[in-house]
Amino acid sequence: MERANAESTPEPEKHKPVSWIAGLWLIVLSLFLIAAYALSITPLLVLYDWRFLTSFVGWSGFLWWWLGSDSIPGRRKATKGFRHSWLVLGLSLLIGGGLGYVSGLAPIGYSIFAAFSAASGAKIGWVYGLRGRIRYCTRCGAYRWHVRLGGNVYCNRCGHQWARPVEGPQTTRLRDKPWKQKDS
User: Fold this and answer.
1) Up-side HSE of residue 111: CA atoms within 13 Å toward CB?
2) pTM to 2 decimals?
3) Cβ-Cβ contacts under 8 Å for 114 (sequence gap 6 or more)
């Protein structure tokens, strides 16, 4: 009976889930490819218009702000409220898309889809690909995404602060080194 229980209990993960990292960068790449396609089908006269460029930066900044930050249990709440609701995003898409039908303001409407795709890819890549890490959480007992908050690194599922393991050959890689804290 003991042997059956020992065989049925799964072993803890010993390797980082590389598929998570590959999946993340595949999503980021696909969002940038969608933005590149949207920009490639935009007429050149519209593409070089100052209104198009200004609105592209504006829509990108809006979506970066709208995506906000993820929660870290016990440390940071997710950005909520009316300004981060789906209604605000839907209204901005309706207004931006509607501006595409007004002849003088058409470049503003043409830039919204490419800007939203590029900004969402950039935000996901920045938060999880560049600032986030997949590390072993001792409280969860599995590999989880860890995000940075105020110089420390926390599990985004349970909020446990990541503690650097004892120095050894497996922890000397650049990706496992803790972030530098600001000097006060």
Assistant:
1) 26
2) 0.70
3) 35, 38, 39, 42, 56
Place of tokens 């920045």: 126
Both tokens assigned to 138: 């001792």
Beta bridge partners of 161: 154
Q: Which amino acid is at 61?
A: G
Extract the tokens encoding 28: 């980021």
Helix/strand/coil (H/E/C) assignment for every residue in the chain:
CHHHHHHHCCCCCCCCCHHHHHHHHHHHHHHHHHHHHHHHCCCHHHHCCHHHHHHHHHHHHHHHHHHCCCCECCCECCCCCHHHCHHHHHHHHHHHHHHCCCHHHHHHHHCHHHHHHHHHHHHHHHHHHHCCEEEEECCCCEEEEEEEECCEEEECCCCCECCCCCCCHHHCCHHHCCCCCCCC
Tokens of 26: 């595949």
pLDDT in tens, 75-132: 777 777 667 788 888 888 888 888 878 878 888 888 989 999 999 999 989 888 888 8
Q: For residue 172, give both structure tokens.
A: 């000397």
